[in-house]
Amino acid sequence: GAVVSQHPSWVICKSGTSVKIECRSLDFQATTMFWYRQFPKQSLMLMATSNEGSKATYEQGVEKDKFLINHASLTLSTLTVTSAHPEDSSFYICSALGTAYSYEQFFGPGTRLTVL
Amino acid sequence: GENVEQHPSTLSVQEGDSAVIKCTYSDSASNYFPWYKQELGKGPQLIIDIRSNVGEKKDQRIAVTLNKTAKHFSLHITETQPEDSAVYFCAARDNTNAGKSTFGDGTTLTVKP
Predict the structure, then answer these.
(1) How far is CA B26 from CA B7, B29, B35, B68, B104, in A?
(2) What letter would DSSP give residue B83?
(3) B98 contacts in A (CB within 8 Å)?
(4) pLDDT tens readout for residues A27-67
């Protein structure tokens, strides 16, 4: 199957700093990528949907100025958590839908963000 | 919008026994139903999926059944092994809705050796 990578796998930062997380589709072109947030022992919460070359569509309640999403190419999407605070600490997961795999959704390994 | 309910939230079985996890969905337009396995600290991995034009699909020890009329689908794992222990999520998707999936709340499966 197709592979989605995320970088970094974990990051610790100070409150007030910004953190960028990269999501890459390694062997396919992803027309659509999704960003999720997951709290311990909970389900995946969709934050936004990004399509290559266009603005991301954010879910209700997600601050688009706080969580900046860029999908500049068919293989790369980035999520930047701006002015991070401890309540932003979470597990962030991206996934991708490919042009060749229109049904299957491939997930990245996740990024653990801890804000001190 | 779509609503997916998943039961049970926790399931403990003895190694070798079968495990069944059930999900119901609300939107009759949903036409794709994947199941994911998530191990601690990792992203979800697709283990099996089914489309709405099929009633059952099997892959070795794993099977999924779909009842479109009743709007429910189930994951069946036979001959469970300790390495099957993980959190399992069901999802439902309508491909006309920008490919967005709605996930169940997850089932923590523990297989006791």
Answers:
(1) 15, 9, 17, 10, 12
(2) G
(3) 32, 49, 57
(4) 888 888 999 999 998 999 999 999 888 889 999 999 999 99
Structure tokens at B35: 């199941």
Residues B80, B19: contact at Cβ < 8 Å? yes
Answer whether A80 touches B (CB < 8 Å): no
Q: What is the pLDDT of residues B6-62, one digit of tens each?
A: 999 999 999 999 999 999 999 998 999 999 999 999 999 999 999 988 899 999 999
* Nearest-by-Cβ selection for A43 from B41, B46, B89: B89
Beta-carbon neighbour count of residue B84 at 10 Å?
19
Do residues B103 and B4 touch, judged by C-beta distance below 8 A? yes
Distance (Å) from the alpha carbon of A58 to chain B's nearest alpha carbon: 12
> How crowded is the C-beta side of B42, counted as CA atoms within 13 Å?
13
